[in-house]
Amino acid sequence: MARGRPDFSPTVVDVVLRPEWATVEATDKNFSAALNNHARGAGAALAYAVPAGKTLRLTNASVYEEAAANADCDLMQITGLLIVDTTTGATLWSQGGNGGVGATFTTPLVIPAGHAVVIEAISGANHNVNTIVSAGGYEI
Q: Which of 40, 75, 78, 133 has its CA 20 to 30 A from that of 16?
């Protein structure tokens, strides 16, 4: 009985998604920023300017927020996450949550060459918090 590939060929070809291939090609981008013990209205932010001839595609973003003081751990840790193309002023994505929020974008957020993007978590908690924001994608 025959074994192996359905057409019995010795050639193996893999099909991978572009974000996965970006890791192989070392064109993947991972960003993170943190800010500790900050008040309402402040938060962690990161900025990135897309180089000429490149396009940034963001595939995921998240924020984690926790109380800075143990006494406040049982309170709400309200936070918001914004992704803004600061060149055009367009908000590409926003979401809020309690203690954190995150998303994997089925269609990547596209930031063209020469544009700058800010990924920012803003605290809405009524006490000091620690915040970590991160995002990832690839650049082609």
A: 133
